[in-house]
Specification:
This protein has about 220 residues and is of the alpha+beta class. It has 7 helices and 8 strands, in the order αβββββαααααββαβ. It folds into 2 domains: about 110 residues, no CATH class; about 100 residues, no CATH class. The strands form 2 sheets. Strands 1-2-3-4-5 form a 5-stranded antiparallel sheet, with helices on both faces. A 3-stranded antiparallel sheet has the order 7-6-8, sandwiched between helices.
Amino acid sequence: MPFPRAHITEDQWKTYFAEVKKMHGASQREFPAEHLAVYEDRDAGLFWAFTTPGHAAHPAWVTRRVVEQAGEVSTSQIGYFAGDEPAFAKLFNAYLALTEKTVKNLQDEKSGNKAAVLPKISFTQAQKMVQQSKQKSGYAEYLSEFSQHNNRHKLDSKSGCYLLTGTEIKLILILNDKAVESAVADVDNDKARCFKRIYTGAEMLKPPHTPFAIELIIK
């Protein structure tokens, strides 16, 4: 907890933003449409969402922590604002909802409840969603941006999933306007489950339309 109260000064916001950016700048993801910059420390399960100029709550940020230990998922969330309080409350609650969904997906995966993670969507159905997304405008451009984003932030390589045994995986990500809503693979092994876990709930660049599905080939 960097400050004792949620209501801070703009200078305090700038100081903490600089600290996080210095330590975790390589993980930076920008969401221009939402006026947010996101940083993460996946080893510690920490995620920071800082507002950028143009956001109604700016300057503000939300810190989330999602940790798995002994099969249990624990979470915490704090936030600070120097801007508009009602706008900050809206931002804070939006991230609470995202955290709750991420935790539910993790718990469902642990319990083997695949239907709850991806209700009524088989891999074949997900492939059809990919084809539908390809037929709409903006697909190729988004896929290129997604690949650059993934390579830049090394979400895959930092996860440790490549170290797990398993065959080549076809992984389909289904995105809403802010994050990966769900992930489905053509196989069910440790590697596939690991990649599904790291992508589910991960914030991504806003797709040109929703629902939006893309297919990744992971070797």
